[in-house]
Structure formats: C-alpha cells, structure tokens
Amino acid sequence: MRPACIATVLLVCLTTRVLSMNVLIVEADGYFDGHKRVRVPKDASIEAIMSAIHALLPPSAPTSMAIFDATANTFVPLTTAAQVKTHARILLPRRPSGPVAAIASRGFNFAFDKGEMTIHGEPVLIGEVGNTGQGTGLTIWDGSVVLAKYLEPQPRGSPHSVAGRRVIELGAGTGLVGLAAAFCGADDVLLTDLAYTLANTNHNIALNEPRLRSLYPTQTVRAAELDWFSRDFPSSLQLDAVDVIVGSDIVWVETLIPALVATIERLLRWPLTPGRGKKNRLMLLSHQTRSTASDEMLFRLLGHAGLSVRRLLDDKDDAPRVAAMYPDESMAQKIRLFEIQDVQHEDSAATTI
C-alpha cells in the first residue's frame, strides 16, 4: 500500500486519429475515489493541462508535477506539453520524500466500462478499480488492448486463432484479453492472477456472460488464482487441456521474471490431453518495455529455457495491420507482440526478437 500522505495523480493521455481532444484520466489518492476524466485540446499548453488537472483538486494540492519516463525508467519533471503525448503517469506528492510506484499508463481512447471497445462488433465490458494500492491487476493497460485487437481478425484454424480452442491468460487482471478471446469464439477461457484481482475479474465475466452465452452456449469462462511462485498448480485448472497461453503487460519488475518464465515453460510443456499435438500449444505475449534490464533478463531466461521467441507484425507488409491496431506510431514501437513456443526437442532453439 502507498502511504496515505502521498497524493498520486495519474494522467493518461488517450489519442486517436479522429478526435481533436486528448482525454485525461485522473486518479488522485487522498482527494477523490476512482477515476475522473477531463478533455483538453491536443494542442493544449502545459499551463492548460495543469489547470485542467488542478480543477479537480483542492487549492492545497501541490502545483509541481513529475512524469514517468519509460525510457529512463524514472520520474522526471513535467515541464512541457510535448511530454504528455508520449508519457502517461504524473505524480503530485504531498511530501517530496514520499515513495511512489512508477508505472506508465494507457493510451487508448475507450470508455471500457461503457463497452466502447468491441470485438467482432460485440462490446467488451470491463470495469476497473481505482485507488486500492493493491497492485497493477485492477487497471487496464495498453498491452491488453493490443493483444485483444491482434486476436480479433485471426482466421479460424490459423495458428494464432483462438476460435474453438482452450485459452489460459496469465496475469489477467481485469480479464480484457481473455474476454476478447471468448468473443473470438474460444471454447474455454481461464483467467488467472493473484487473489486480490479475482473479485473484479469475476465481475467483468458476469458483465459479458449473457451475450457470450447467447453467442457460444457451450463456452466456459472462469477465473482462478495462479501464483507464479507456487510449486503446485491446482488440478482444477485443467492445464492439460490448454491450447493457447496469452499474457499482456505482465513484465514489470525483475524479481518476478524468473517465476514468470518458469510458469510459461511449465505450461508449454504440461502433459497434454491424449490426442492433442504438442505443436498446437503456444503463447502470445504483448510486451511493453519498462526497463532494458528487465527485457534482457526476460529474453535471456526464455532462451535458456529452450523456448523460441518470435516477434510478430515486424515486416513491412504488416504496416496496415499495425496502423489499425495502434493509436499512434510511438505506441507501436513501445508495445510489441511475440509468439513463444517450446523448441526443446526441435533442431533450432534460437531466440529471435
């Protein structure tokens, strides 16, 4: 939990090619609960941006702001409007010495709780929980939207299609990717994360269940706890039936990476239901760089585990799909998609990124 003396204001600048406004999603611990939204022109000055934020706060709120720089992996002073276009999280500490958590935030202009994001024309309703201090799993992150939109156009029967397949999501959080897989026609979807997220995940399943049941009467969508550090995974997870593993924005801090890689390795090599070929099991990962050290550790450990990593949508021919999936070029550079497979028993175990 963050200390009560810290007032954190989260500013997310959501841009689209059509709208002339930026949407500021503001969280302010200690001042109000949940999220508040403000619209400002895309060409707004830094003074106008700060004024819009402070209009939500009492006069006693601090006037100085710092913004998280994902490249430097640290907070830097917010001094220009240009920073807001490429960086997301702004902090207003009541006390300069107070500790804060540095996590960049999202850039898609969707009111997720209103169903503005759709998969195959169906609204995907996702609720978030703000200001709990419990962790990152109660918030929607950009990588989940990117992976959801990647799954949407995959032709049934293609290697990355989830239609008719069994899907498990690691670090599901709000469950957006798993629910998108459900709307893509997956037979079974298992959303996994730590226990603190599950109430919200189950709430989001319930929001979408009536329409999913009408579309796919035999489909199952459920949530369950899965701790990457656990030695034993419950048999109730039915991991032998998993075809596709998905994960988005699940690489945050270096201390979690070895356990994550070990979990990915275990799932890819989990004994399969008789009659299912091992070649059918793979992982699709949406990854945003948080630090070069974390990236280096992630891909090094995946390689050491004998897992192949292939970047997706990396050819010039993929440019139209990339343009349709991302709100801007900068996000396309920051959030990358990867396919991970077990090549332990194959000729080549090279990791290519």
Automatic annotation (TrEMBL):
Signal peptide interval: 1-20
KW Coiled coil (keyword) present: no
TM regions (residue ranges): none
Pfam families: Methyltransf_16 (PF10294)
Keyword annotations: Signal
InterPro entries reported for this sequence: Methyltransf_16, SAM-dependent_MTases_sf
PANTHER family: HEPATOCELLULAR CARCINOMA-ASSOCIATED ANTIGEN (PTHR14614), RIBOSOMAL LYSINE N-METHYLTRANSFERASE 5 (PTHR14614:SF109)
Protein name: FAM86 N-terminal domain-containing protein
Originating organism: Saprolegnia parasitica (strain CBS 223.65)
